Amino acid sequence: MGVPESRAAVAEALSALETAVETLRRYYGDTLGVRRLVSDVARLGDDLAELGDPLPGHRPEPVRQLEIVPDEPYDPSMWAGAEDEGLGAPDRRAP
Question: What angle do CA 60, 18, 43 make, to 5 degrees?
Fold first, then answer.
């Protein structure tokens, strides 16, 4: 997703949030919590408007892939010849 699409997606989500907060305002009235929500949504809109264009030469960070580690036990042969951390090799005694 490029910059224009991302900004459009955020603007769309912000519009939906404004609508939802306005609905809450009708049910809760002018309470402190509602005023804070209205203020937060307005600030988000201002922040989005102030973003401007990305800096020239700025490269987006690569998307990190989640690596799934299975719950099954590892093959015991993988540990053959390995030392137990803190215990030393099986043929030697710890001090």
Answer: 55
